[in-house]
Each structure stands twice: as C-alpha cells, then as structure tokens.
Design a protein that fits this description.
Elements: E1 6-10, H1 16-25, E2 31-35, H2 47-62, E3 68-71, H3 74-87, E4 92-93, H4 96-106, E5 111-116, H5 118-123, H6 125-133, E6 138-143, H7 147-152, H8 159-173, E7 179-182, H9 191-198, E8 202-204, H10 206-220, E9 233-236, H11 240-251, E10 258-260
Parallel strand pairs: 1-2, 1-3, 2-9, 3-4, 5-6, 5-7, 7-8, 9-10
Helix pairs in contact: 1-10, 2-3, 4-6, 4-10, 8-9
C-alpha cells in the first residue's frame, strides 16, 4: 500500500473530466489537481513552452509527495509526455494512448476521426498510436481551437458553441467515420452538442480509458491507497473562484476549496 496522492494536471477545467472518472473508479485514492488557468489555452503554444509548463507543474505536484502523475491534458500529453518522463523519476501517464487504443477497439468500419487543439492535431500523436496497432484504419483529424475557451466560459450548449461546432465538424461529417476521439479533455463537456451534430458516431472520452490504465499501474506497482475516504486537493494558477464554481458543477461536490499558487516559482 502507498497512501501518497496522485497528481493530476490540466491547462484549466477540462482535466476535471479525468479527475472525476479517477474518483469514481479509484475511490480510495487521493487526488491533488492543478489547473493552469493563468496560461490557458495550451493548444496554440509551442512544444518547448508546453514542456516547460508541464515540468513546472510536476515540480509543484512533487511538493505534495505524489506517487504518480496523470497529464489530464491532450496537448501536454501529446507534446510533453516523453520529455517529462525522461526528466522525472516517477510514473507519468497521459491521455493520448488510452483514447487511441480504445478507438481502435471500437471502430467497425475502420474510419476514425480525431478532434483536438492545434498543437495536438499537428503532433499526429493519436495517429502514431493507432498505426502502431494497425495500418488498416483511415484517420481523419481536424483542430477545434475555439472549443477550449468556449468550455472555459461555460458556454456548453450556447448557440454560438453549436454554430462553431457545426463548422468544425462539417469536415468530418462527409468522411463516414464511426468513431470520434475527443482529443482534448475539455471536449467531453461538449459531448452533447458534438453527439447531436455527428449522429450515430461513437465518441471516445479519454477519461474512462485513462482511469483504467492508472488502475493497472497502481496494481502492478503496488501503489494502491488504503484510506477509505480521501480528501482531494485543488490548486490553480489564477481565477480560483471561477474554477471552484465550475469544478462543483463537474464533480457534483458542494465543498471544494481551491487554492491559487504562483506556478512560475517552480
């Protein structure tokens, strides 16, 4: 048994979809969550910047004595995972590989779509995982950079969001995909809108698969937690009040203290 917490981080609110699933599946585990709300969005930033930000956050999470890290951000998983694994001596997992593997299992017509930030789509990270499994699948991807700020604004089913989604997703509607990877952890919060536009298409939410990968890691590494009622911690780099309000909605919790820190100090 290892009663240290699990560190989870994202560029903002989106990673809470991952944290929620971790809390549901790993009920004994304590989560220390960090949302980099001062520097969002990540999707338009360079690989070097994303690696720098990720390293700063991991150094902060290490001050909380975490036993493992989940990068609950599609962009950081795509651009920084390999670099920070080399830099830090602790288990670190991302959301790209679990989601890509799930899409390969789910597709029936071997036509998969991917939506994500500019950085994630440009990295081709999902395609790399998919083509390692099989070359018989066609992959179609498109960047949806406005989705993150719309989610952060709380416009989950707003008319503006619907119109933006229709324009972005029109590229994929003619491709006859049967599976669509939500390649940013903010995007599951738009699943209702995306699902209505795409119709009979399986949406791949990275949360379920990532939680399963983490569970296996904890089991094989003998890092499981034995405390029955963990008290989770939440930190942000800006806008703590806004984050707290949004997090309560996603997690369904009444009491959710959030502390703002100066992440540049790390």
């Amino acid at each position: 048994m290892d009663n240290r917490p699990i560190g989870v981080f994202d560029s903002g609110f989106g990673g809470l979809t991952i944290a929620k699933e971790l809390m549901n599946q790993l009920t004994n585990e304590k989560i220390v969550y960090f949302g980099d709300t001062a520097r969002i969005p990540y999707g338009s930033k360079s690989k070097e910047t994303i690696i720098k930000y990720s390293a700063q956050i991991i150094r902060f999470l290490q001050t909380k004595d975490v036993k493992a890290i989940v990068i609950a951000c599609g962009t950081a998983s795509a651009l920084a995972l390999e670099a920070v694994r080399e830099q830090f001596d602790l288990p670190i997992i991302g959301v790209v590989e679990p989601a890509a593997m799930s899409a390969v299992e789910e597709t029936r017509n071997n036509r998969i779509g991917i939506i994500g930030t500019d950085g994630t789509i440009a990295s081709k990270s999902y395609e790399q995982v998919i083509y390692k499994q099989t070359t018989d699948i066609e992959v179609f991807s498109t960047a949806c950079p406005l989705f993150v700020p719309l989610v952060e604004e709380g416009w989950l089913e707003d008319e503006v969001t619907i119109e933006v989604a229709k324009r972005y997703l029109s590229v994929l509607q003619d491709r006859e995909i049967d599976t669509l990877i939500l390649g940013c952890t903010h995007y599951p919060l738009l699943a209702k809108v995306i699902g209505q536009i795409m119709g009979d298409v399986t949406l791949i939410n990275p949360a379920n698969e990532t939680a399963a990968v983490l569970q296996k890691l904890l089991d094989t590494s003998k890092l499981k937690h034995e405390i029955q009622v963990p008290t989770h911690e939440f930190y942000v780099s800006d806008c703590a009040n806004k984050f707290e309000t949004f997090a309560k909605i996603i997690l369904g919790k009444e009491k959710l203290p959030v502390q703002q820190i100066h992440i540049e100090n790390y």
